[in-house]
What we know:
- The chain has helices at residues 2-16, 31-35, and strands spanning 25-30, 40-48, 51-60, 63-64, 67-81, 88-103, 110-111, 114-115, 123-140, 145-163, 171-193.
- By secondary structure, the protein is mainly beta.
- The chain has an eight-stranded antiparallel β-barrel with strand order 1-2-3-5-6-9-10-11.
- The protein is elongated.
- Helix content is 10%, strand content 63%.
Amino acid sequence: MKYKIIITVFICSLMACFNAKAQDVAVKTNILDEIILSPSVSAEVGLAPKWTAELTGRLNAWTINEHNWRHWLVMPEARYWFCQRFAGHFVGAHLLGGQYNFGNLHNNIKFLGTDFSKLTDERHQGWYGGAGIAYGYSWILDRHWNLEAEIGIGWVYTHYDVYRCSNCGKKIRSNQHHNYYGPTKAAVSIVYTF
């Protein structure tokens, strides 16, 4: 909860730095993040008639049913809109970074060279950073509300330590790293524009 308050105050402070006119600023939340219990909030500001900058923060600071899915993420993105900002098609380039503590996640998933099934019996704790490109579309629902969909692909580098189980502190491997190539962003967002 503490991190959610900090992120909200940061985004509100960021928005206060700009003179808000019609469709110069937007705040949003990604419904997909809410479904996986990782609440997110984003602020987007207009920079030019077809350019915007977005900053997203995501946080999951709790354990659910003894499953560790704790992480935080910060993702800035620059967007180019083909028609007008906050409406229609856009492309973007994003950076991302954060920390995580994953474990006791029972699964059999192997995806694009990454073996997530290791998280069934191990806990991985570390940091990550990466970059990607994205495509999206924003539908205007009324004067202030939009619905936005976006998908991104890219690269993520992660550096982590491995622990024997989700609750114990017995480290079994240190200074591990992994390069991931694939989807880096998926969003279906409710957007409020100012």
